[in-house]
UniProtKB/TrEMBL annotation:
The keyword Signal applies. Residues 35-59 have a biased composition (Basic and acidic residues). Keywords: Signal. This is Maltose/maltodextrin-binding protein. Residues 23-59 are annotated as: Disordered. The lineage of its organism: Bacteria, Bacillati, Bacillota, Clostridia, Lachnospirales. InterPro entries: Bact_solute-bd_prot1, SBP. The keyword ATP-binding does not apply. Residues 1-20 form the signal peptide. CDD domains: PBP2_TMBP_like (cd13585). It comes from Robinsoniella peoriensis.
């Protein structure tokens, strides 16, 4: 795979995203923490004298941050809490934050294009599952030296290093802000004990349907959206010791484990009939969650982040749901789930990497971790924070145990969305027509993807 080709695609993506933003698809702003979104130029002259007086004539320290978190967005409770956390950093360190706000789905392309232009932000928020794309484009610097000078790696969840390490060189390029875990949620009225294997999913689903008229036993996101690969095909493939890509990101899903995963999904719909056919065409992941919350499905694959939605439902108010790891393919086998989260990265051309690292170190402290994880809906990344009393009982303890025992990062897709969508389409094609030759479908899909993105 040629880097030139990747850069061209990313630059095209960036330009398209920029045009979309200009048409109202998302507002991009820049500003310091003190001015809540005003531009640097608007505030610089007025603040120069005040800054020099306050700093004894020394130049103030200003950290530039590219993020989807917007200090002007006071309507979002989560963002408001996080901004207050950032303001606390300034209060404690004297380092101001200048924001470069970018819509969440445009961050990767903006990071690449600003870094290539030699004018990146000092610190950037990145999607950990898209790490390979950013590293391959040369947009991020490795953090290993700073990590080893500042930390004992054993003080962090293994998920941090799994998510932040690029398989191409085994170096760490990002640090998770918080982390998400996924598993199987089940209605305790319908299912008394969590299934531990694929066979037990089937038997528990069939039993629930026989005892409760009008419901389905099991649900998942199995449509053509790339999230199908994240939440269903990927974990079920890993459970069979399979993989979705090679180390360079090229497709490798034409294997027995991936075929078994897709066949199991198809059988749940077409043979065992415990899963509604709509799960093969759903376009909004929340639809499956809402069906479970409404009591229409006995078990679903979903993340720890579903907890607030479930707690607010009648099912949750009655305390009739629980969580367990993704069931193993066979008894005693691995129970991997896709673990990811928003992360911090430092652009390779950052002018103040030491300042960016100072923020990352501060953000990784226990109190900051607890506050951010609670607001964002994730789990803390340090063992110390995970051992806090709020994570030592109930669902939170199950989330932590699942994270530390079963977390699996996504295979290193360089063309992340394109690759997972190609796989998801192949899976849905077979599930909707189980008479087709599954291995032929996977082979054709794999070859088409590799020909498009990896042909010499």
């Amino acid at each position: 795979m040629k880097k030139k080709k990747l850069m061209s695609l990313l630059l095209v993506s960036a330009m398209v995203c920029s045009m979309a933003a200009g048409c109202g698809g998302g507002k991009e702003t820049s500003g310091s923490q003190e001015t809540k979104g005003e531009t640097k130029e608007e505030t610089k002259e007025a603040s120069d004298n005040e800054t020099k007086e306050a700093s004894g004539g020394q130049e103030e320290k200003v950290l530039t941050m590219m993020n989807y978190i917007d200090p002007a967005n006071t309507d979002d409770p989560m963002q408001s809490v996080v901004i207050k956390l950032y303001e606390q950093f300034t209060e404690e360190t004297g380092i101001k934050i200048e924001y470069n706000v970018v819509p969440w789905d445009q961050l990767e392309s903006k990071i690449v294009i600003t870094n290539r232009a030699g004018a990146p932000s000092d610190l950037v928020a990145v999607s950990s599952q898209k790490l390979a794309s950013l590293v391959n484009s040369g947009a991020l610097m490795p953090l290993d030296d700073m990590i080893d000078q500042s930390y004992n790696r054993d003080d962090f969840s293994n998920a941090v290093w799994a998510a932040g390490t690029y398989s191409g060189d085994n170096k760490v390029y990002c640090m998770l802000q918080s982390v998400h875990t996924r598993g199987i949620w089940y209605n305790t009225d319908y299912v008394k004990e969590a299934p531990k294997t694929w066979d037990e999913i089937v038997s528990a689903g069939q039993k629930a349907m026989s005892e409760h008229e009008g419901i389905y036993g099991f649900g998942f996101w199995g449509g053509k959206h790339y999230a199908s690969g994240e939440t269903a095909i990927g974990p079920l493939t890993w459970a069979g010791d399979g993989k979705l890509t090679n180390d360079d990101g090229s497709a490798a899903w034409d294997n027995d484990a991936a075929a078994d995963a897709i066949k199991f999904m198809s059988d749940c719909v077409n043979e065992y009939k415990i899963t509604p056919e709509t799960c093969l065409s759903v376009s909004d992941y929340n639809d499956v969650t809402q069906q479970f919350a409404a009591g229409n499905i006995a078990m679903i694959f979903d993340g720890s982040y579903a907890k607030p939605t479930l707690e607010a439902s009648d099912l949750g108010k009655e305390g009739k749901f629980d969580f367990a790891p993704v069931p193993a393919k066979t008894e005693g086998g691995p129970q991997p789930h896709f673990s990811n989260g928003w992360a911090w990265g430092i652009p390779s051309k950052s002018k103040q990497p030491e300042l960016a690292w100072e923020f990352i170190k501060w953000f990784s402290q226990k109190e900051q971790q607890l506050a951010h994880s609670k607001a964002e809906g994730g789990l803390p990344i340090t063992i110390e924070a995970q051992q806090d009393k709020m994570y030592q009982e109930g669902l939170e303890k199950k989330f932590i145990d699942n994270l530390n025992n079963n977390a699996h990062s996504m295979d290193p897709f360089v063309y992340y969305q394109e690759g997972l969508e190609e796989l998801a389409v192949a899976g849905a094609t077979y599930c909707l027509d189980p008479s087709s030759d599954l291995r032929a479908v996977l082979k054709e899909s794999q070859e088409a993807f590799n020909q498009k993105y990896y042909a010499e």
